[in-house]
Amino acid sequence: MSKFDPKIHHRRSIRLKGYDYSRAGAYFVTIVAWQREMLFGDVVDGTMNLNRHGHIIHDAWFDLKNHYRHVELGEFVIMPNHVHGIIVLTDDGSRGGPSLSGGTNLPDMMHAGMNNLPINQTRPYVKPQPRHGLPEIIRAFKSFSAKRINRLRCKDGIPVWQRNYYEHIIRNECEMDNITKYIQTNPLRWNDDDENPVKPQP
């Protein structure tokens, strides 16, 4: 795996044509503030100090688990004008695939009774919630956090995030380890980060 270089990876989304971003898997995402505004706090001596907007971002990110049952969250960091995080979409069996326990979560329809209800399903039958993919989850995070930040600063409809985001499909444990370390050490490299508007010039 090549080293994650902010010069490359913060600026564009590389999505695979035809790839199903709702399928189980791990994703490294980077989301940048509108016009790269230093909105979430500052880095002092290699440590990120969150302001009130930054704490809203933190809470909105970790609240995702309460809204999406198939979401697990890995390493995450908030920088002054962007965030890096790992989102894992688990296999909850919603498409008939194996669950984490090795079985399936689909009701037994082989011997359905009257009204085509599965025999192991209590009435009334509740339609399963749709499985949201990565784009919908990121859109929700951006929307929730932006509304709360704008409420705090008494502004309505002001952009907080850039319209797009970058994601990378994590394909193996080696990539997961490298990306986790990259996220953990991001504040230490802030002076060299291309997203830093006061980056020292060579």
Structure description:
The protein has 202 residues and is an alpha+beta fold. It has one domain: 2-Layer Sandwich (Alpha-Beta Plaits). It is built from five helices and six strands. It has helices at residues 6-9, 52-62, 64-67, 134-152, 173-184; strands at 25-32, 41-44, 47-50, 71-78, 82-89, 166-170. A four-stranded antiparallel β-sheet has the order 4-5-1-6, sandwiched between helices. Strands 2-3 form a two-stranded antiparallel sheet. β2 (41-44) and β3 form a beta hairpin. The longest helix has 19 residues, at 134-152.
Keywords:
two-stranded antiparallel ribbon, 4-stranded antiparallel beta sheet, 202 residues, alpha+beta, disordered N terminus, Alpha-Beta Plaits, single chain
CATH topology call: Alpha-Beta Plaits
Relative strand content: 15-25%
- Please give the domain count: 1
The helix tally amounts to 5
Order of helices and strands: HEEEHHEEHEH
Shape: globular
What is the overall pLDDT average? 79
Measure the end-to-end span: 28 Å
Strand order of the largest sheet: 4-5-1-6
Low-confidence stretches: 1-14, 93-119
CATH superfamily: Transposase IS200-like
